[in-house]
Structure formats: structure tokens, C-alpha cells
Amino acid sequence: MSSVQEARAALGALLRELRQNATFTVRQLAEVLGWPHSKVSKLENGRQTPTETDIRVWTQATNAEHETDGLLARLRTLEFQHVEWQRQLTSGLKSHQVKLTELNARTRFFRVFEPTFVPGLLQIPDYARFRFEQSGRVFGVRHDIDEAVYTRIQRQEILYRPEKRFHFVLTEAVLRYRLCPAAVMLGQLDRLVSLSMLPNVKLGIIGFGVAYDVAPSHGFWLLDDDRVMVETFSAELNLAQPQETELYGRIFAQLATVEGISYGREARSLITKAAEQWTTYLPER
């Protein structure tokens, strides 16, 4: 179980305990609340996350209103760990970028692994636009793409702060996946070359020929030693338990030092070779 699943299961177990203490069966409580009995079962078994309203009516129905604040605190912790994109993006794409800006301002050491696309802090505006347009197509949020792009590019100002350190590890696939037009990707690759020369930025590229010690299952951001951020198609996971940050720290260290990884001139050489391939995709003049 992930910590998110564990937290949801633990919250469900507490709700079940309140129901049992009130001597309700699942069906009886469902009737009192006017819910399908399947909802009560899903909440108790951690297959569904309750809302604040769900918790309030549950504790009221089971005469356990003194437990409400504690359960709500657990729910908010769970929501910090698992934030569904559909809910997070209801206020638009820009608002999430603003939250990230505030989080980045507090972070001094960034360790980032990405196997699929260029990390946001390294993106050029046109590449960022294609990333946001993809999210827009999936979640139907398209009204503030310009503002989101602008805010993401503003975030990159922190790359030039000497007190900040950045270590990015990308797979060679990031340089070659066709996620945007060739002209955009050529500009993006040029940007990677430039940023790799900043004194506080370390950029590693794991080439296709490298044998992995740890499979590149998914991307993640390790912010100081305090938080790991993982993006899935449906949600953003925020992992903050010490055992989780320590685990991801070890995984990042293994990926960042895998035999054959390229840094400096070797990394820029891989980027240049990828750019040469991208020129073949440009439309003929």
C-alpha cells in the first residue's frame, strides 16, 4: 500500500468504528443518510475518499460529533497527499502554477527525474503551451493557458538564484518523444543546452544504451528532504513521510549515478544528436 491508500483505509476504519459503536448495520446507516449502501461500504473500506460533508453527516448520524474535527484533520492530510487533477484544475491551470511558485520559493535543493517530458522549470514557452494544451484536452480546462504559460516561465527565475541548487536527470527518450512540433522541440533542446551550463544546475541524461539499476517507472520531484511530488494522469501525489522521502532520495541517487549516465559535454552531445534527428521532421521549404 502507498501512504495515500493507507491513510484512506485508516480513515475508513475510523468511520466503520463509529457506525459499529452506534449499532448500525451498513444498510441501516445508508438509509439514515439517504445514501446507497455501496457508498458506506466504499468509504469504510478505503475505496472512496469522503468529503467534509460526508464526515459531518456521518458523525451526526452516529452521535459522534466530538470526533468530527479529528476526522476532518485526517481528511485534509489525505487531500494534501492525493489531489485529483479534475478538482485541482477547476480554478484553472494558472492557479496550480501559482501554488508551485510558492512551493519552489521555499525549496533550496531540487532533485528531479523525468522519463517522458522536459520538466516545467526547463521548458520554453511553446513547449509549455503544448503540455498545458494536453491537460486541457484531458480535463476540459482551456480558458487560461496563456496565463499558465506566463506563470510557469516566471517560475524559472529561481534557476538564477545562487542559493538554489538543481539536479535534473532525464532519459534520452525525453529528447526524442514527439510531444510537440519539430520547430518547438529544436528550441527546447537549445534551451536545455544553455541551462546545463548554469553553475547551480546539474543535468544528467540517461542514454538508450545505459543498463538501469532501477527501472524508470515514473517521474518525480524531490524537494529538499521534505516532499516528493509524483504526477499521475488523475492526480498529484505529495509524499512527506520520512521513509518515503528517504526511499526516493535513494532511488534518485541510483538513477543519477547509474553507470553510463552523461553529464556536461557528454549530455550536451546527446542533446545535439537528438536535435539532428528533429531537423529531419521539419517541413521542407
UniProtKB/TrEMBL annotation:
Domain HTH cro/C1-type: 15-51
InterPro entries linked: Cro/C1-type_HTH, DUF5753, Lambda_DNA-bd_dom_sf
Superkingdom, taxonomy of origin: Bacteria
Record-linked Pfam families: DUF5753, HTH_31
GO function term, MF aspect, one: DNA binding
Protein name: Helix-turn-helix domain-containing protein
Species in which this protein is naturally found: Amycolatopsis alkalitolerans
Lineage: Bacteria, Bacillati, Actinomycetota, Actinomycetes, Pseudonocardiales
